[in-house]
Amino acid sequence: MKKPDYHIFVCASFRGTEAKGKCIKKDSMQLINYLDEELQDRGMNAMVSSTGCLKLCEEGPIMVVYPQGYWYGNVSDEDAVDEILDALENGTAAKAHLLA
Fold first, then answer.
1. Which of 10, 56, 72, 89 measures 20 to 30 Å from 50, CA to CA?
2. For residues 47 and 65, is the Cβ–Cβ distance under 8 A?
3. Does 3 or 1 have the greater pLDDT score?
4. What total of structural domains would you count in the chain?
5. For the chain, percent of residues with pLDDT exceeding 70
6. pLDDT, mean of residues 50-62
7. What pLDDT was estimated at residue 1?
8. What DSSP state is assigned to residue 96?
């Protein structure tokens, strides 16, 4: 695999060895499966990884896109993911979901 254009991190709420945060309770892990499928369908060169707790539980599920450094909050459904990926394809941020 060549170096990805995007590395997308999705909070999995782990603190130590236990999932204690809110993102996983808000189905953040389902986003990973959808992201993987959607990225492949779109032909985007990206990698998706789950993370430990990103400590923004009230804003969760949290998704971070690098190298752009975009931090997105309340990414709770496929529509939000689609908006974020659409923006990436257009070279912009999905402002409606950006964390300030």
1. 89
2. no
3. 3
4. 1
5. 94
6. 92
7. 63
8. G
In the chain, count H helices and then E strands: 2, 5
Q: How many other C-beta atoms can be found within 10 angstroms of the C-beta atom of residue 18?
A: 8
Q: Tell whether 1 is covered by a domain.
A: no
Is 31 within a domain?
yes
Indicate whether 26 belongs to any domain.
yes
Q: Determine the Cα–Cα distance for residues 62 and 55; give it in Å rounded to an integer.
A: 9
3-state SS assignment for residue 85: helix
Nearest in space to 51 (alpha carbons), one of 13, 21, 19, 77 = 13
Query: Does residue 83 fall inside a structural domain?
Result: yes
Task: Quote the domain boundaries for residue 16.
Answer: 6-97
Q: Is the pTM of this model over 0.70?
A: yes
Give the three-class secondary structure for 26: helix
Mean pLDDT (the chain, rounded) = 92
